[in-house]
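ESCALATION

Customer reports they have been waiting on this structure for their group meeting. Please prioritize. Original submission:
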Amino acid sequence: MRRRSLAALRLTSALRVASALRAPWKVPRAAADALRDGTADTAAPDASGAAVERLRAENAWLRRALAGRPVIDQARGILMATEGCTAERAWDILRQTSQRANLKVREVAGEVVADATGTVPPGPVRTHLREAVRQHRAARRSAS
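Update from on-call: job pushed to the front of the queue and completed.
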């Protein structure tokens, strides 16, 4: 079994990732020559393809999560202003409504923002949101 240098491993990994992602950048000529001549060891574990796919999935999930954050923050701000609650309590209201309506938090947050702009949320979301707000108000009354 041939031992690979750290540089060869890095080069091989970089080339695999670049080709897997169909990157628009070009492989440096020296690296391509090393692969062609056989001076760079191209044997790699089968897990490299699975690792790339796992990273792609994680990247897609993170992009969706980041896309939903502004709407969630807006909804929290709306609830804090209308209900006079803390950011944590506003998050609890959104989370509770999400669980009861069986919707994602960002979807519930979108409905809260739409409601604040004059659009009425659908029946199930509206019902569960009112219930969560009612429970918040009752907890606030009993605390004071």
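Sent to customer with the following note: Residues 20-25 have pLDDT under 50 and may be disordered.
Escalation resolved.
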